[in-house]
Design brief:
transferase, alpha/beta, 12 helices, Rossmann fold, acyltransferase, methionine biosynthesis, 8-stranded mixed β-sheet, 2 domains
Length: 337
């Protein structure tokens, strides 16, 4: 299913005060909008995903899944800075007549949310029944919920945090360091930094999974083996897989956006900001998540009035939010009941 595109002629004034011209938002919708039934489910996606949520979150979103187009009007917009249709570093800047590349402006989570709000108004959506997001998507959902409030009924917040941690920032910086040592990163081509990004993805994967994941899936059966280990091949494979579908500029940009996330910026504190979110909220943590430990989700749940907290188990750490669809469905069903 191909995305739709909305071109916003007025552009977007970023949190920095800079004007992002030529604003294009790529998005997918599934089902029919019915204001009388209050049936909008809006999905905010994570770092390297796209707006086709049926593709990357099947089992939770799909024709026969819990969130389906027969009952819901599902919307997912590709975030700014990405490479899947919305304005990003590879987009042509009309002012200079060539792609932005290294000149793409620095964005924040609030800028991503501002683009979502532009699309919401364009689609004529007055009220969102459920706003759901995980990881970087959770950051967006939390920030947008703060602004929406009376126009939002339910928030589902997964495997994310109220303010990105020094631990998470350190992982992201290590990945950017890997990109920066790629000699091609100084160039301005679509392929700049791709070799470095392969290494960056390998680093990231260690934070997405955990010791037990590798123990259970990458252990050797040949006790005499001394080279060419499964774990080595797996890391190389995952780096190449991302390089074949993404670009280093977007990877760099989106990781910086994550680092700057803080729901409390300019609002006294994260606790104070969270206390202003007055919607029915479900916070879900993954017990084996190393990148976003469950203490971070518990903090959010404790500070949003009346929020419910649920926890799922997974061998796959942070990536459990993508893979444990049956557990998520059960928890979400219980939340609505």
């Amino acid at each position: 299913m191909n995305p739709k595109y909305y071109k916003h002629k007025a552009g977007l004034i970023l949190e920095s005060g800079q004007l992002l011209q030529d604003l294009t938002i790529a998005y997918h919708t599934y089902g029919e909008y019915d204001p009388q039934k209050n049936n909008v489910v809006w999905v905010c996606h994570a770092l390297t995903a796209n707006s086709d949520v049926f593709d990357w979150w099947s089992g939770l979103f799909g024709e026969d899944d819990y969130f389906n187009p027969k009952e819901h009007f599902i919307v997912c917009a590709n975030i700014l800075g990405s490479c899947y249709g919305s304005t990003g570093p590879l987009s042509v800047c009309e002012e200079i007549g060539k792609p932005y590349y290294h000149e793409f402006p620095n964005l924040t989570v609030r800028d991503l949310v501002a683009a979502h709000e532009i699309l919401r108004l364009e689609l004529g959506i007055e009220r969102i029944h459920t706003l759901i997001g995980s990881s970087l998507g959770g950051m967006q959902a939390l920030e947008w919920a703060y602004n929406l409030n009376s126009n939002l009924e339910h928030l589902i917040f997964l495997a994310s945090n109220a303010q990105h941690s020094p631990w998470g920032i350190a992982f992201n910086e290590s990945q950017r360091m890997a990109i920066a040592v790629d000699p091609t990163w100084k160039e301005s081509t679509n392929a700049s930094g791709l070799e470095g990004m392969k290494t960056a993805r390998s680093i990231a994967l260690l934070s997405y999974r955990n010791y037990q994941t590798y123990q259970d899936t990458q252990s050797e059966t040949d006790q005499d083996k001394q080279d060419d280990f499964k774990a080595s091949s797996y890391q190389n494979y995952q780096g190449l897989k991302l390089a074949n579908r993404f670009n280093a500029y977007s990877y760099w940009e989106l990781s910086k956006i994550m680092d700057g996330h803080n729901i409390g910026r300019g609002r006294i504190s994260p606790e104070k900001a969270l206390s202003q979110i007055q919607v029915k909220t479900l916070v879900i943590g993954v017990e084996s998540d190393l990148l976003f430990p469950i203490a971070e989700q518990k903090f959010v749940a404790q500070n949003i009035p009346g929020a419910q907290y649920a926890e799922i188990s997974s061998l796959y750490g942070h990536d459990g939010f993508l893979l444990e669809q049956k557990q998520l469905t059960k928890v979400i069903q219980s939340f609505y009941k």
